[in-house]
Amino acid sequence: MSGHGAPAAGGERDPGAAQPYDEPDLLRDQFRQLLRYRWLIVLGVALGLLGGGWLGIRGADSYTATTEISVRPLPIDSSGEKTAPGETSMGSERRTALSSVVAERAARKLHTDTGPQRLAADLQVTNPPETRMLRFAYTAHSPKAAARTANAFATAYLDNREKDATTRVASMVESYEKQRAPLLKERDRLAEEIASSGKEGALDGTLSAHSSVVNRIAEINGSISDLRAEDTTPGRVVTEATPPGAPAGPGLPLMVGLGAAVGIGLGLLAAWVRLVFDPAVRTPGDVVRALHAPVLGTLPRRRRGGGHSPGKQKRAARRGRSRSLLADGRLAEEYRSVAFRLAYDETFARRRRVLVVPPRGSIDTALAASVNLSASFAEMGKEVLLLEADLRTPSLTERLRQADGVQPGGVSRPGAAGWARAPGHGTIGWPTGPRVPIDAGESGVFDLVPGHRVSKVPRALTSSAVTQLIGHADERNSVLIVLAPAVLSYADAIALIDRVDCVLIVCDPREVRRDDLARVRELVVGAGGCVLGALLHAEGAGAEPRRRGALSGPPAPPDRGSPTREGTALRVTVR
């Protein structure tokens, strides 16, 4: 399995262009990340189905009947003035139809004990655009009740409007009659005065005044006659409500379908929100964006035996971790792929030294990666030196002693003589002794400088003896691999970066946060180093456990011209 992300080989590193995603690839990557929260999507669909089913069942026993009426303009408006022909405020009429006065009239017509407010709660009054019509729609639990109540509200509205018009006309007639009463008295007085007057000049003035009063009285009588002749019909029923034959709701199947669609939308929205606020790394793309460096490889998961119980599988996994330190099969091919990518990386080729570290947590996978990368470089014919710089909890020596094919005792291989002790070694306690040759079978041999517990770790890591060891990579055809504790747990790795330069991050993307990777990159770059890339693994990734006489899974075919590691074992020669 090849790594993801931009290739490490060739050209200088451009942090801004570490992830050349096209838009379709980015959308596919985001959609795959959303599918990691399937439980949120399933929860959204379940809620949508429940909500749609509830609405569908609730609408199955509700019926809506509709009555339509045309509204006729009244002759007199509320201020007592005559209205222009065709002038009606439909907004005001609609509010009047929904008023408590109309609801009280409708309740009296229905002879019901239900209060007017409760009765009007299920009423809807609408005005179709560009019309003088009102549509009364009433919803009830039975078809007959819905039709009866809708007709009652329409009739109550028309009665209320007719009564209002009649009251306005009567009020105007009464007002005119009050204006006419003093004029009638004045007319009678002037008539008596004319009858008793004997002077011709005085008679002319009285006759003129009498004529004016009579004309005014005639005008008022005409207005009263016109008012009494006005048609106060408020409107008429255009469509009378009849009992509906089907429920008002859209139906249970349609509501369930709509609920499912809405639920999918809500589930995707919840998954997206969860993804935005999730600090964990979920994909190789997240690793690339956080480190500004490519993913060099992804270790395959270890296959488990099909017929074994969980207890036997766990014991087999523990035995595989302790005894099969050198990988084989697909896992070995992945390590070889990473080693080849590093070998052709320009940054690594200039210095030929790499610091293998995890961001935080256990160092087990980084330890296995350093051993297998050393074997892969040895297979290429490189002079490899593996330096275990974990001086707090060193475990590589013990792991090697438990590996298959251990041959304790013996002598160092020729040419692997120890180094001269620098001043102060006796007080620091590390590094001391010769290099330990590690026989990786057909892959070749590499040297190991094992770690030891010391009391002054910072002083030991910055000693001149360590600097001399790191200088091993300056020799021709040599490679130095340094194993150090987690970067965010101790500063040991940071103390080595100024001399090792290149860093390989080994991490489980599901167990590390994006902030952790960004912090690791800041520390490495701030110390003058460079992140070559990341090696990803998952829980259960590692050497495949062997069964007697065969591997637990079929190994990957070897490259032409290169030996495989199948059947090989680590052989350690110590003094």
TrEMBL record:
Residues 1-23, 74-95, 299-323, 543-575 are annotated as: Disordered. SUPFAM superfamilies: P-loop containing nucleoside triphosphate hydrolases. It comes from the Bacteria. Signal peptide: none annotated. The keyword Transmembrane applies. Residues 300-322 have a biased composition (Basic residues). The chain crosses the membrane at residues 37-57, 252-273. Keywords: Membrane, Transmembrane, Transmembrane helix. This is Lipopolysaccharide biosynthesis protein. It comes from Streptomyces smyrnaeus. The lineage of its organism: Bacteria, Bacillati, Actinomycetota, Actinomycetes, Kitasatosporales.
